[in-house]
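SEQUENCE, C-ALPHA CELLS:
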Amino acid sequence: MDSERYKKGMELMRAQLGPMADQYVDKINSISEIFGRVNVEFPYGDLYSRSILDPKTRKMITLSALTVQGSSLLELSAHIKGALHLGVTREEVLEIITQMIAYCGFPAATNALFTAQAVFDEMDKGSVNHEEIEAKN
C-alpha cells in the first residue's frame, strides 16, 4: 500500500515531470523498490511540496545543483525536461548552466550544456512531447 507521502509525491512528480514521471519511477523500482519509494517520498512528497517557493523556482534551483555536481547527467536530463514542462525556457536553462561556471568550473558546466542540448535535440526530433512543453513556455 502506498503511503500518503508517496501518493502526494507521485502527484507532484507527475505535475512537474509530466508523463515521464511514471516511467522514471518504474525504471528505478525495477531495480530497487525502496530506492524508488524514497525518490518519490523525500524530494517530491517532502521538499517539492513545500509552499515557500513555487515549483518553477525549485526546479531552477535543482538544475543549478545538478549542474554543479557535474556527474549527475541522467538526473540533470530528467530535470531539464521537467523544468521545460514547468515553463522554464531553453534560454533560462542555458543561463542557469552559464551562471554555474563560476561555481563548478568549465568541465561540469560543459557537461551540463551538452546534456541540455541533447534534451533540446530529443524534443526537436519528437522523442519528447514538445508541443505540451512548449505550450507552457
